[in-house]
Amino acid sequence: MRKTAYQMRELAACALHGKVPSQELLAQVDPEKLYIMCQFHCLTAMVAVALRSAGIRSPRWEEEHVKAVRKSILLAAERRKLCEFLEQNGIWYLPLKGIVLEPMYPEIGMRQMADNDILYDKTARDKVRTFLTANGYQAISFGKSHHDVYQKPPVYHFEMHVSLYPAGREKRIEAYYANPERLLRKDTDHRFGCHMTAEDFYLYMIAHTHKHATGCGTGLRALLDIYVYYVYLQQKSEVLDWAYLTAELRQLGLSEFEQQMRQLSLRVFSAVELPALSADERKQLESCLISGAYGTVQQGIQRQMQAYCAGETGGTKWHYLVQRVFPPRAVCQARFPALKRYPFLLPVCWVIRLVQAVITQRKHLLLELRCFKELRND
Fold first, then answer.
1. Distances, alpha carbon 351 to alpha carbons 136, 145, 329, in Å
2. Where do the structural domains in the chain lie, given as residue ranges?
3. Contact 271/17 with Cβ under 8 angstroms?
4. pTM for the full predicted model
5. Which of 3, 98, 112 minimizes the C-alpha distance to 47?
6. pLDDT along the chain (378 residues), means of 10
7. May I ask the CATH architecture of the domain 68-196?
């Protein structure tokens, strides 16, 4: 699949730069393998644009492109309704991630949208839930993390954020984003709509990418987003304040990561033909190519184990296993709120948790055990 992944990269670069793919490239492509790879990376619609430019109009590829365009239009229309409600109720809000990035791509639908992410005033959490459920949405998750998840058939999916970074991942980044209101800048055409400065949005994009990269992994689309945003600002003659960015990246602990991702994105997408890469660049790119759009569960488990063993605890793989089977009360309380009042029930919760995992998460459990066996730390 390595060859197919590199072909996908080249076709994505063709679409990005408005170039027709070479006949030599197209002759080598296995359509089925390419389709599977593009689905894994959420680049099917983008690659469909490149194939169409070469006269290839396969119904399956065309359908994926049409679906991406349709979903983008439908989400935008539904987002306007939600923002009107927020405006009418005096609730500040800040569009995030793909909502900001998608218009910067050459064509609508080229950046496939899984959902819409919006940060808003957390004191209005119940009001927003009432509005969305009254409009046909189901609250898939509410009050359990830094965002609530709402879905409605056929394609509507909103993640309503009450903070910019999840708790319990990286304290340094979590502390930086603890007060998101300091980053808000009022829109000129909305009373309560907000945006970030170009620098702060870029920092947030890097922090979000780092969260995925150190978790389950991050793929080619993350590189595309960084490249597209960086080039968009240059085309608009907007020069990033690198003195500010350097200071903030240092505070976030992301200086090296940002430099690697920015340089790699420019190397990978500045032209259709991939330039000669250094050994480190090749390794970074291939890590992206095997991760897909959202990473893989296996990578997430492996990195979680490695981080535990290399962290402040200095624990072994056996310590990791013990804390996974018998997690502390603070961890269990998220699933069993009664523990706050009845801490003596912790052993019961351990048993329930383990039984539930065996019944409902058997595949994940077996994968974690396999990763545990492979982990070299005794």
1. 37, 24, 13
2. 1-57, 68-196, 197-294, 298-374
3. yes
4. 0.81
5. 112
6. 93 97 95 94 95 93 95 96 98 97 94 94 97 97 91 95 89 94 96 96 95 82 94 83 95 96 96 94 90 55 54 60 74 77 83 78 65 57
7. 2-Layer Sandwich (3.30)
